[in-house]
Design goal:
- By secondary structure, the chain is an alpha/beta fold.
- Helices cover 44% and strands 17% of the residues.
- The protein has nine helices and eight strands.
- The chain has helices spanning 19-32, 44-50, 71-83, 95-99, 103-116, 133-145, 164-173, 189-198, 208-218; strands at residues 8-12, 36-39, 57-62, 88-92, 121-125, 150-152, 179-183, 202-205.
- The chain has an eight-stranded parallel beta barrel, surrounded by six helices.
- α8 (189-198) links the parallel β7 (179-183) and β8.
- The longest helix has 14 residues, at 19-32.
- The protein is globular, with a radius of gyration of 16 Å.
């Protein structure tokens, strides 16, 4: 069985999250040795401080949750997040431009975020719930050309989240060196394992503790 804890980005992106909430998820992340915590940009510096004695990474979101910021704003957000200690960047594409099939624009904005990330890992949130399969594939191709490291299904704030079909579709649309992150509605151990079976190599979830407890109770995490 895989070490599922290292697939999980332990996530708290709610608007009403407080400093004490961030402290709590960082403690949980250290306890279960998750891959990262994923927090809004304001809390990057705090999370970095809380996790300094662990190997848990700090992930943050850019252009979140709508993706409708300008390219310049997304690039600035990214460089600011890196300055504050972010190890990974999850950016939301301009979904409207994807619906217009302006994939050159999508490529450009991803390239600018990748450039601003100073070599840190960039994941591209394509918000699958709003796209056709053809559009999902084309956005994945743009992310490949722009040298992102991951494509990610969802923000968790749209009309739908991750499903096995989209994960498999995305996995087949990207370069072999890239990976897929499944997020949005991954709440149970069964959900998480379905995403992994479909090809996900990272799971974004606010239910990471419950997923791990279920896994530990089954005696399957190594």
């Amino acid at each position: 069985m895989i070490s599922l804890n290292k697939y999980i980005d332990h996530t708290l992106l709610k608007a009403f999250a407080t400093t004490s909430d961030i402290e709590k998820i960082c403690e949980e992340a250290k306890k279960y040795n998750f891959k990262s915590v994923c927090v809004n940009p304001y809390y990057v510096k705090k999370a970095k401080e809380l996790l300094k004695d662990s190997d848990v990474l700090v992930c943050t979101v850019i252009g979140f949750p709508l993706g409708a910021n300008t390219i310049e704003t997304k690039a600035f957000e990214t460089s600011d997040a890196i300055k504050n200690g972010a190890d990974e960047i999850d950016m939301v594409i301009n979904v409207g431009k994807a619906k217009e099939h302006d994939y050159d624009y999508i490529k450009k904005e991803i390239e600018e975020v990748v450039k601003a990330s100073s070599g840190k890992l960039v994941k591209v949130i394509i918000e699958t719930c709003y796209l056709t399969d053809e559009e999902k594939v084309e956005v994945c191709k743009a992310a490949t050309l722009a040298k992102a490291k991951f494509v990610k299904t969802s923000t968790g704030f749209g009309t739908g989240g991750a499903n096995a079909h989209d994960v498999s579709l995305m996995r087949n649309a990207i370069d072999a060196s890239m990976k897929v992150k499944a997020s949005g509605g991954v709440r149970t151990l069964e959900d998480a394992l379905k995403m992994v079976d479909a090809g996900a190599e990272r799971i974004g979830a606010s239910s990471g503790v419950q997923i791990m407890e279920d896994l530990i109770n089954k005696g399957e995490n190594k």
